[in-house]
Amino acid sequence: MLRSVMILKLVVLSSFILSNAMAVEAGKPPTHRELARLAEKIRSGEIDVGKDYSVNEKTGRFHIIHADKLMLDCSNCHRGETYRKDYLLVGKDEPYPARAKGRYQRSVCLGCHQRGGIATRWYNSSTEP
Amino acid sequence: MSRLVRVIDMQRCMGCRACIAACHVENHFTPGAPWNVMIENEIGVYPDVRMTFTTMNCMHCEDPPCKTVCDAIGVNAISKNELGVVLIDYERCIGCRYCASVCPYGVPQFNEKLESLYPGQAQTAYEAIPDEQRDPLHRKKAAVVEKCTFCWHKLEKAVTAGKIDRIGKDPEYTPSCDLVCPVNARLFGDLDDAQSNVSRYIGKKKAAQLKKEYGTRPQVYYVLEGGDY
């Protein structure tokens, strides 16, 4: 009897662990290769991201590409209401818009948009002459 | 070939903002879209504290990401001319702000609406100058992006007069912000001329570009507190 209960407990526990592992697997962030493939499809037009070239509007391409298609979380770019004290940016002291998600650090863009990154290149590498 | 650069000596700057005022007057400042700003920063630990002053205008990068992104979406409103000056064509700009979002220095300023210098009052005579009497770069429009032009309307005169070699030397061919500094913290000239004031100053004081990690190769150099980083 005791043995049967132990086996039952083991089965329940292992299925719980397995289901959790599968959930993590499903929700895990996309790999570099997957993102690169997705970025290429956006560039080629295979994935439609609209023609509204706007940064601020949720309906604009900018947020459709980054938030909807590439599934970047808001907090990936928007990092709170103020910039670092010594951050050098022309609009640094502009009033913080009430509905904005937060300021964004340009350094976040570097990871993907530099030469050799997965996204369209806006920046060269720093060692380039 | 000339490569025009500006040098700003942060060790000399005392934060008087004369350069900013000069820019505002010269370039028909509109509230909300400054072309030249000063960023103040307090450094040190009490009681050994002091201020640093960093004036920031367009860096006129040799590889400007603003132009790259504008071209990539087919708007082509941003150009880089023969003297390395990056300019925005207000007639072509669609106000998407992609340029502002990729600029590591946050330079492009979206002019949401043209506001009077004195809200609630009539325009000053200066603001009321009609567009046709202004340089094309001073024909301000709402819902487009604008930024520092290295006072291209002055440099262009030197080009037209065949006096490129006088840029940075004659006041009429030199950006206004660089003319008014009372402590000579700003220089403007040709980096390709090894004997120019900017070339010698950059070499002597080890002036550096900001945010070099972006690989944009800015044409504005800073003599930084503590040297290059």
Structural class of chain B: alpha+beta
Name the poorly predicted regions of chain B: none
The main sheet of chain B orders its strands as 8-1-9
| Overall form of chain A | extended
Number of helices of chain A: 5
Distance between the termini of chain A: 77 Å
Proportion of strand residues of chain A: under 5%
Describe the protein's architecture and organization.
The complex is a heterodimer of chains A (129) and B (229). Chain A is built from 5 helices and no strands. Chain A has helices at residues 2-27, 32-44, 61-69, 74-77, 107-113. Chain B has helices at 18-26, 65-72, 98-102, 152-160, 176-179, 197-205, and strands at 4-9, 37-45, 48-56, 78-80, 86-88, 109-111, 144-146, 186-190, 220-223. Helices cover 19% and strands 20% of the residues of chain B. With 229 residues, chain B is of the alpha+beta class. In chain B, strand 2 and strand 3 (48-56) form a beta hairpin. Classes of the chains: A mainly alpha (129), B alpha+beta (229).
What descriptive keywords fit this protein?
heterodimer; A: 129 residues; mainly alpha; 2 domains; 5 helices; 46% helix; extended; B: 229 residues; alpha+beta; Alpha-Beta Plaits; three-stranded mixed β-sheet; two-stranded antiparallel sheet; 6 helices; 19% helix; globular
Write the layout of secondary structure elements.
The complex is a heterodimer of chains A (129) and B (229).
Chain A: H1 2-27, H2 32-44, H3 61-69, H4 74-77, H5 107-113
Chain B: E1 4-9, H1 18-26, E2 37-45, E3 48-56, H2 65-72, E4 78-80, E5 86-88, H3 98-102, E6 109-111, E7 144-146, H4 152-160, H5 176-179, E8 186-190, H6 197-205, E9 220-223
Parallel strand pairs in B: 1-9
Antiparallel strand pairs in B: 1-8, 2-3, 4-5, 6-7
Brief sketch in words of this structure:
Chain A has 129 residues and is mostly helical. Chain A is built from five helices and no strands. In chain B, a hairpin with a 2-residue loop joins β2 and β3.
